[in-house]
Amino acid sequence: MVSKTSAPKNKTNPSAKKASKRQHSSSSSQQAAQSSNPSFSAEHHDAVHSSKEQQQVLLNIFSDAFAAVLSSDRFPVLLGEIKQALYERDFGAAFGREEYLETYAARWSPTRALCYASIFLGLHRYVDGVMTGLGHAGELGEATTEGASMSSEQQQQQQQFESDDQDQHQDDGPDEAPAPSTTTSQSRTLRMLCIGGCAAEHVAFASYLQTTNHRGTLTLLDSGPWAHISSLLQRAVTTAPPLSKYASASARASNKALLAPGQLDFAFTQANVLDMADDKLAEMVGPQPQIVTLLFTLNELYTAVGIGKTTAFLRALGGVLPAQSLLLVVDSPGSYSEAAVGKDKKKYPMQWLLHHTLLQSETSSGYAWERLESHDSVWFRLPEGLRYPIQLESMRYQMHLYRIHKDSTG
Question: Which CATH number do you get for residue 219?
Fold first, then answer.
């Protein structure tokens, strides 16, 4: 829960080349994979959390950066227009104007940023491996993937995906965040490509770099006009926050930016990823292993442009990503994230389409995906006592993480 600092009464509101060889995933290798690294869950559970102090720092970044937006008389009007567009799933309208994006970033991105920061921390053992080169060598022959035939666990998941969404809340307290390594030298760089969305991803990645003392390179790619907002937030995470003229000497002495100078390089490109040629996508990705995120984006692609184009994009992405790269997909859980297929408009869950595209389809392109984490429903709960000018709510999401392996002989 977040206290509403601008109101006289502080209400709280909860709310959160051998890619074609099927033999390569033998039953023994599948058993080893299931016992050693993947984590799957079809039930609700709670996300890990950053420290409350860190969460407040991130909220302050948003409240300072969007102070004029939050205090504007037009804020409620713009908010209503955005909500209507989102309700109608008209994503082009909701994210097509800069003033809409500023309003969206001020209203919904703070919770998303805290949530994404918790996700990155919860996946730190995989995330840090991208930067340090830990883990598998990344060659397809060494990969442990789920083969073209479905395991019994996958069949059970598929049956569940096709059944009605059933809530099975587990209201246990949130897990504690694992302690990430703080010994990594900033001479090594963690690379992230965010496809769709910008504000929450930007601040969450900055938070992860600050917590782990890593250096990072962030590429933001979106069809909406996020350039101004991205520059605004980059200044916010690399500049000490504003202080009152009455601030004490000790407060002034301890006041510092979230990130050190040069700790985060970023670039924003306004483009539709589905319209990109493979060579342009490869140029944007580059030759180094990285994390690619689709955070509340994949279902939008399925809905707005269809399954065919979205599937083609996912396969093209697999073709250009360097070995050991990670793909992180986060989206709304349950029936909201569904796409209609065929003349009968039969609906399929987003996660089923994603898993089918990455894990079940045959490929001769010299790469294979390994599923590391898959959770159908996770609660991110805002703790009591956080402060923000407007009320924020907890959120629920689904999350899926994959690692790509490449055929070194291809």
Answer: 3.40.50.150
